Amino acid sequence: MSSVAFSADFIGELDQLLRWRRDVRHFKQQAVPEPILQDLLHRASMAPSVGLSQPWRFIRVEDNDRRLAIHREFERCNRAAHAEFPARDAEEYARLKLSGLQDAPHHIAVFFVPEPAQGRGLGRRTMPQTVEWSTVMAIYNFWLAATARGIGVGWVSILDPVMTGQILDVDPDWEMMAYLCVGYPTSPSEMPELEKKNWAARHPDRSRWIYR
Ligand SMILES: Cc1cc2nc3c(=O)[nH]c(=O)nc-3n(C[C@H](O)[C@H](O)[C@H](O)COP(=O)(O)O)c2cc1C
Known about the structure:
Residues 18-184 form the Nitroreductase domain. This is Cob(II)yrinic acid a,c-diamide reductase. The structure is a single chain. This protein is an alpha+beta fold. Helix content is 40%, strand content 13%. The protein has one domain: NADH Oxidase, CATH 3.40.109.10. The protein contains seven helices and four strands. Helix 2 (34-44) packs antiparallel against helix 5 (130-148) and helix 3 packs antiparallel against helix 6 (161-168). The longest helix has 21 residues, at 64-84. The termini are far apart. The protein binds flavin mononucleotide. Flavin mononucleotide (FMN) binds next to strand 3. Flavin mononucleotide is lined by residues 22-23, 25, 98-99, 155-158, 192, 194.
């Protein structure tokens, strides 16, 4: 195929996908079939990356002891975050569920290589952070491809990146980007959970252009 045209129906469905993609924290126990997980990784790897460096590394966390250690680390970081909020916000914070670590059947940690040999440094001289941004794009590809297949993804950032690297025994040169909970959501929703809980809401100004 030399080019591809997308139908109006497809564009409508893509819009639905963007609307229904959620950060998921409540999962069914049912595992996602292996070929589907492999397919998601494949889609993630199609993301754009600076210099075609593909700096992301997706790690399947399957070992129970490591998972437990990650969960304990989350609880430690969550308690510390909770303690820093002023009293009124702290009360609301305590009511939020900020990870699906206990119920998600799959844990996927995403790291990146800060100085990847692949891509030969192209595009990074003035903006070395572009490797991080490339990794975010791979995660977002993964997230959208998962949503399209009825699979939920929850991004957990309430973790210490160095501790997480140690628990997972990754290459000490890699840096942590995300810890993803993956599985079938208990209740798909059109509204972000933080909006449902009145923590924050999407602001219309963020979909307005700024002109200069
Ligand atoms: C970089 C990043 C880090 C996030 N970290 C967390 C987290 O630690 N815990 C959590 O519950 N949600 C986390 N989220 C999810 C956001 O809270 C969520 O995307 C936002 O509330 C909007 O909801 P939606 O993704 O369902 O549209 C994170 C999202 C991003 C992009």
